[in-house]
Amino acid sequence: MNRGLERKLLTAGSIWNAFTAIMTIFGYSTWFKTTGAQGLQGASVENAMAGATLLDNVSKVIVTFGLFIFVGAVINFLIARSIKDDAIQPKIAVWIACWGLLQLLVMDVVGFVLFLLAFVIYSAKNKAIKLSRQAY
Length: 136
Fold this sequence. Notes:
Elements: H1 4-39, H2 45-82, H3 90-105, H4 109-135
């Protein structure tokens, strides 16, 4: 069976993840630092020091999360390129399911839908491949 649709869905999902990761790293973290710095302008010295430390730590978490999603996007792109036609690759199904659940946990609806569709179609074609092998 041709796995073209799964490849396209995983590629679309990886592009979406790369886009959201770049927006998180460069857009959201910059906005968060700017807004946080503005909020600390009228604070006392002690509160400003504690707030600056907290702001820095949260910014690092935001950037780390963005990098994690970006690495996942690269992995998904590589997996999309390595899917073989007429073959059942159970590790790929497990990866797609786990990444789709992660997308749900981080409330990325678009990513979740893309990976859910890829998982359902991949699983359905796996079943069809198994049945066609049993027929012979």
